[in-house]
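W.,

You were right to be curious about this one. When I first looked at the sequence I had no strong expectations either way, so I just let the prediction run and decided to look at it fresh. Below is the sequence, 122 residues in total, followed by the output.
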Amino acid sequence: MTTSRAQYTSQLVWGGVLLILGTALLLNNLEVLEMDSVWRYWPLLIVALGIGKLVIAETPRERGGAIWLIFIGAWLYISVFKVFGFGFHDSWPILLVGVGVSMVVKSAYRQSLIGNKEASHE
């Protein structure tokens, strides 16, 4: 049985997440680190998950899903920490912009595939 590059990368990412989480919890138990302040950064876990998925993505669909995770994590971070004064109430239109960009990119990608197929048949 062979192990693919994606499986190794996935193990590396999740191993890193567990290593960081375990270290943080240990430091909390030793009263070196206060976890309450660390848990405020939970949206960055979603960003990290998205980055991990982007690294191992092999198809455009997988890359798109990973980019969405990064986008949602970034939006949550902006909303939780009120970056630029944006809370959840103010920042939800960012999601509409993201959906619009996604639809335009998918359409352009599909058109380029159709154009490439037609060009190869000529």
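Here's what jumped out at me. The chain has a mean pLDDT of 84. And, maybe more interesting for your project: The CA atoms of residues 47 and 71 lie 7 Å apart.

Coffee later to discuss?

I.
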